[in-house]
Structure formats: structure tokens, C-alpha cells
Task: inverse folding
């Protein structure tokens, strides 16, 4: 099994940290300049059963100018072509307009989407339940997986779930 995976989410939610943990190298940092690279392969994670190709998808945010508008279209088209989208949020931050904007874009895409709730090391377990309830009411996520990319909590579980969708 082999497939393309796009990790999207607001800045600083932990996308690069997660990739660095999975791939085991500091390669995601290299493509951290927003909007300068398009659909770049950030890393490939290979197991005996599967190959996961992580794709950088910059530009999923509210466009501020015409070029941003074009980048947005490119990004949305990429989301239609990948096998799986990981929408990452920061558990320690409330639902913001940036998140709502992304969810709105996801509604026009048939690709399966996971909600990845990152930074769970920064919240009380009770808070997690209300975050899940809130996001569940906004979009039909295929899986909802809480992780700590920094500490490694549940990141193996996320990889297992990703494999099922390739
Ligand atoms: P990106 O902009 O989405 O790629 O976010 P980064 O991966 O650059 O992470 C932004 C900041 O959040 C960095 O300081 C990370 O160390 C921190 N961070 C990422 N994941 C976690 C996590 O699971 N827990 C905590 N406490 N901090 C995290
Ligand atoms: Mg990053």
C-alpha cells in the first residue's frame, strides 16, 4: 500500500514537529517558508506494509491578495488529489477563524479527513472531550485522533489509522 497524505492546519499547530517525529529527520523544517513551495514531498515513511508520502500543502488560509487567491486554488486542488488529509489543530487554542476557513474548504473535497488534535500534553483530559464534541459538529471527520507530536503520545496510533486509508 502506498499513498499521499497532506497535513494542513494553522501555523504553529505542530505540523512540522509531527513530521519530524515520524520521519525522524529535520526535513519538514526546510519547507517551512510559507507559500514558496508547492506540493513538495516533505518526507516518506515506509513500513513493511505501507509507504506514506507526506506532501506539503501551503496556502490553505484566507487569501489576502490575488496571488493568495491563486495559491488557494492550487492548494484546494492538491487536497482533492491526495489519499488522506490530516487536519491538525492545537488543543490548547480555541476554534478560530483560521480553523473555520479551512473546514469550509474541506467541505468541497471528497478526500477523507482526520482531525488530529495536537498538544494534548498542554490540556486537561476533560477539555479534550469538549474539543472533540465541538469539531464533530462542524465536519464529518473519518477519525479523530488526539496526539502530542512533541512527546510522542498516540503518534503510533495515528500512523496505524493512516495506513488503513491508503
Ligand atoms: P507548524 O507551524 O504547524 O509546522 O508548527 P511547528 O511544528 O513548527 O510547532 C510550533 C511550536 O509548537 C513549536 O515550538 C513546537 O515545539 C510546539 N509543539 C509542537 N507540537 C507540540 C506538542 O505536542 N506539545 C507541545 N507542548 N508543543 C508542541
Ligand atoms: Mg511547519
Result:
Amino acid at each position: 500500500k502506498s499513498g499521499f497524505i497532506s497535513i494542513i492546519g494553522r501555523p504553529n499547530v505542530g505540523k512540522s514537529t509531527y513530521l519530524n517525529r515520524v520521519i525522524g529527520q529535520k526535513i519538514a523544517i526546510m519547507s517551512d517558508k510559507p507559500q514558496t513551495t508547492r506540493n513538495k514531498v516533505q518526507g516518506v515513511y515506509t513500513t513493511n506494509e505501507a509507504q506514506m508520502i507526506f506532501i506539503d500543502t501551503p496556502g490553505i488560509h484566507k487569501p489576502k491578495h490575488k496571488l493568495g487567491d491563486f495559491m488557494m486554488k492550487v492548494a484546494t486542488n492538491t487536497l482533492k488529489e491526495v489519499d488522506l488529509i490530516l487536519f491538525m489543530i492545537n488543543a490548547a487554542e480555541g476554534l478560530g477563524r483560521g480553523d473555520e476557513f479551512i473546514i469550509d474548504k474541506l467541505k468541497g473535497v471528497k478526500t477523507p479527513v482526520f482531525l488530529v488534535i495536537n498538544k494534548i500534553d498542554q490540556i486537561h483530559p476533560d477539555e479534550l472531550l469538549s474539543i472533540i464534541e465541538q469539531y464533530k459538529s462542524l465536519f464529518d471527520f473519518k477519525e479523530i485522533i488526539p496526539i502530542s507530536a512533541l512527546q510522542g503520545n498516540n503518534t503510533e496510533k495515528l500512523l496505524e489509522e493512516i495506513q488503513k486509508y491508503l
Observations:
- Confidence is low (pLDDT under 50) at residues 28-33.
- Helices lie at 15-23, 66-81, 97-106, 125-136, 155-164.
- The chain has one domain: 2-164.
